[in-house]
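Input sequence (251 aa), recorded before submission:
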Amino acid sequence: MSKLKIQTTWYEELFPEGIYIPSSTMLSGPGGSGKPLIGNFMAAEWLKQGGSVIFMSLQYPDHSFIIESLKTITKLNIEDFTANTIFIELDATLDGMEKMKDRHFKANVVLPDIWDAALEQACTNLPNNGPGILIFASALNLLLFSPTYGDQILQKIKSTIRDESGRSYLFSVSTSAKGKQIATLESIVDNLMMVRMDSETNSIFLQAIRMKEVPFLEKEIEMPISKKDIKLLKEIADKSRKRVIPLVSKL
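Predicted structure, token format:
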């Protein structure tokens, strides 16, 4: 059994033996609670330990924001890991997907077939070393707003979570909408963590609910992320989310 350990005080407190890999992890909680920011810590450590990461952050305007977010939150310079990273940007106006250029490409992953094709294009262009390949997809609930493809893409995400390819998955989802569908995803992932934000203090809190084959602390803990950074990143994500939902809702 292989495990990923992250060299931060809060991570070691929550998961003294690390997280089992390969596995599927879900960060779940209300919209705007900072779930992708917590995921950044895992993605950064994954790269530092020689693994590869596919970033599919559906609520952000483009991949440059992910790069800045990683640098702000984890101090990781993604330019040091160019060969081990690929960015997939959601473009709900496309009929399919673009070819990869400079380690990123746009794809309409609302369409189930394109979801598969985009992940395959990314995975085949990454080394499978260290802890392997991690697919880090945030704001997955945005895909469920499609009246035509919402149910199909939900089933596709479920099959992805259950796959036995040896890849690991880190998903963040909002419970503020499509709660019934999100609950079905929560029920099948290996690792489930709940995230919330205190609106008065802008503090982010994390609690592990279920973990695969490793001990964990069940107590909720506050994340060491500055209030200034949280506020700035939240504002950008909120604006992008309002742009994405109307486009997806037309499909």
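Checked by second reader. The chain has a mean pLDDT of 87.
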